[in-house]
Amino acid sequence: MLPGAALLGSLVLLAGCASVAPDGDAPPVRALLHGQPLLGDAQAQRQPDAASAAQAEALLTHPLDQEGAVRIALARSPRMQAAFAALQLSDADRAQAASLPNPVFTFGRLREGRELELDRLLSVNVVGLLTLPWRARWAGQRQEVARLDAAQAVLQLAADTRRAWLRAVAARQAAVYLRDARDAAQAGAELARRMHQAGNWSALQAAREQLQQADTDAQLARAEQAATASREALVRLLGLDAAQAARLTLPDRLPALPDALPDSAELQAQALRDRLDLRAARADAAATAEAQGLTRATRFVDAVELGITRNTTFANDGASDRSTQRGAEIGLPIPLFDLGQARGARAEALYLQSAARVRGVALAAISEVREAESARRQAWRVAHRYQAEVLPLQRQVNDEMVLRYNAMSASVWQLLAEARASARTVDAAMQAQRDFWLAEVDLQMALTGSSPAGLAALRSAEAAPALAGTATEGGH
């Protein structure tokens, strides 16, 4: 047996070596996100700084494009800060799980007559010491799950920002087209009023034109409110204050459609390789298996305490008449009633649950990629048909109607009706173009990020720490 001082020194040295400091763990998350199409060249930041503020101000001096919106959101959005704060909390838990429990010092003072006894005991959980490498490895695996979750949160923010930007630009563009239709309706209503006053039109004909104007005014009011709501949703995602929001301007039009879509043969394999929620599910299963192994190792004896004791007895309350006893103590639980069956069964059930989750996420990933690719391809066909066929035909009809009007073979009412129909056709084409770009964002998210419920589906971290905790809580 080691002498007391040597044993105490060894325990202190081991405890010092086991100390792990949290570091925030942001660089590994950025490495996971490198090259993601949803992020472009943007970098996720834990907190806004002077550089990000200057970048935001520079981007707000001209109409904000989609990539600029993502850059601002990843630098300034409160959601970005919350995601990294959650990662920092997980890193602190990792550091805590990978550290030894503190030694316990016990002091006792006993008196019998004139005899005084002082008892001192310094003890440490030996099982916690022996299982430290296991717990550190488990904590590292749990931290990998947290990194993947944080990366998913970043990708989700980028996707939401792109969707909000597309909706804001589309809503603004729709309001512009409806203003053209409103102007045509106003012109028709005013002309109908004058013709009715001159006795050339009936009250019914004039009322129909006025009804058309009123309906167009209502549609425009709804479109303008939708444009305001979409703009404010984008402002919230970007984390802009009131002054910055007032300076925010958006482009007049959505991005042009691609001429063709890339081949989709490898999309399902890409999802199985790159999806962050699937990687998080696999890491979670590995951490759960590690915790199951720890539970099996400590099934019967989950706490062993080793202590150094020093007892001093003063026979007559004098320092010259005393005796000192030194030694060591060991505390070992007797597995008489609790044989660890419940802990073992719970660990096995958690592992089976995590393995089923991996399979479920994989199946969902493949299905969601197929669905997203089908939606994107169909949206491209519709939008491309509008661009290649419908809008050219509509322009041809407009030109023919103007020629007929100039030749006095078409009335002004036909010309105004055609202007309203043209505005509706252009608006439908723009909506189809917006739907394609939204489907493109959904496909990129399905390929690399997570399903809509992906961030909530992998929260099994509450149960697993209880398994590892059996190695550290038994004696205290």
TrEMBL record:
Keywords: Signal. GO terms for molecular function: efflux transmembrane transporter activity. InterPro entries: MdtP/NodT-like. Residues 1-20 form the signal peptide. This is Transporter. It comes from Pseudacidovorax intermedius.
